[in-house]
Amino acid sequence: MVRHTVYTIKQASARTGLGAPLIRAWERRYGVVRPIRTPAGYRLYDEEAIRILLAMRGLLDTGWTASEAARAIGAGEIAVDAMTQAGSVEVQPAAAAANRNRLIDRFVSAAEATSAPDTEAAIDEILAAGSFEAIVDDLLLPAAAALGTSWAAGRMSVAAEHAASAAIARRLAAAFQAGAIPSRTAVVVGLPPGSRHELGAMAFAVALRRHGVGVLYLGPDVPVDAWVDIVQRTGARAAVIGVVTATDREPAMAVAEALNVVAGTIVALGGASASTPTDGPAGPIVLPSRVVEAATVIADVVRRRRA
Predict the structure, then answer these.
(1) What is d(CA 241, CA 238) in angstroms, rounded to the nearest whole number?
(2) What DSSP state is assigned to residue 4?
(3) Is 90's pLDDT higher than 60?
(4) CATH class label, 6-87
(5) How far apart are CA 307 and CA 302, in angstroms?
(6) Whether the predicted pLDDT of 153 surpasses 90
């Protein structure tokens, strides 16, 4: 009698690197796997299910949406066994880029039409495309940036752009709250005086909290003296100042210079326009432009300081 190996959902999660809630969501929403049920109702996954889940993860990591990946696998358009042999997942870059573009276009089109249900559904699709780390730099933030491009081209009103941006902000706030809340604030994150484009800073705060770092998110337009006060009150090990546009550089440097008086505080600048003067004494740390990489840098710095 041939015995087939089966795995509990906890074991399937460990073997695929996918969270159990995400596996259940894919089962419910797309029918991508159909686990065996024990008499007590527990799910059991066979080797074929594990291969399908790994193929889904591989497609999502390269930019496919969950719905597109599930449809392609179900239709036999994806060779699951070939994708997952030897633990490798290979997807054509052009196909991955096409899926990313299609998802972003769907979101922007919904925002241009001022359709709240379609906008929310498009954001759901983005967030279902993989882990936060897999989608934030290549899908979520590019989608937010595409709103500005559409507005500049005259295809979207200011109100519509604000509404769509606020929808993303709500999801980021929910993701931030979903993270474990450490007992001590290790890093404060926010924007300098006058700066209001906060989605990148919010995404960074989420990514850093997902590292298990205690983060206090201050939000936009934080006065210089308020930065100094909160760092002193919390005893934070680091302060990360968002620098979104060129006009943010001067106020960001004013915050950084003011924080120099707080002994032992690491000061870092993050964002598309982050830079420090090339002359004079060494300035604050300039973080990588990608959110995931920047969060990893600060998490490592904080851990070393703690050690």
Answers:
(1) 10
(2) P
(3) no
(4) mainly alpha
(5) 9
(6) yes
Torsion of CA 231, 232, 237, 243, to 10 degrees: 20
Q: Amino acid letter at 95?
A: A
Q: Where are the domains of the chain?
A: 6-87, 93-177, 181-306
- Phi/psi at 98 (5° precision): -65, -40
- Count the alpha carbons within 13 Å of 43 in the hemisphere toward its beta carbon: 17
Half-sphere exposure in the Cβ direction for 208 (13 Å, CA): 34
**β-pair type (266-270, 238-242):** parallel
Q: Across all residues in the chain, what is the average pLDDT? A: 87
- Do 240 and 271 contact (CB within 8 A), yes or no? no
Q: What is the pLDDT of residue 302?
A: 87
CA distance 107 to 294: 26
Q: Which residues pair with 266 in a beta bridge?
A: 238
- CA-CA-CA-CA torsion for 184, 186, 187, 193, nearest 10 degrees? 60
Residue type, position 257, single letter: E
Nearest to 197 by CA among 169, 225, 178, 170: 169
Q: In what order do the strands lie in the sheet with 43-46?
A: 6-8, 43-46, 36-37
- Class of CATH domain 181-306: alpha beta
The pLDDT tens digits for 38-67 are 888 899 999 899 989 988 888 877 767 777
The string of pLDDT tens digits covering residues 282-293 is: 578 899 989 989
Q: Find how far residue 258's CA is from the centre of its chain.
A: 30
Pairing of strands 238-242, 215-219: unpaired
Q: What is the DSSP letter of 183?
A: S
The superfamily CATH assigns to domain 93-177 is Methionine synthase domain (1.10.1240.10)
Residue 86 has pLDDT above 50, yes or no: no
Strands across the sheet containing 285-286: 215-219, 187-190, 238-242, 266-270, 285-286
115: number of Cβ within 10 Å: 14
- The DSSP symbol for 213 reads -
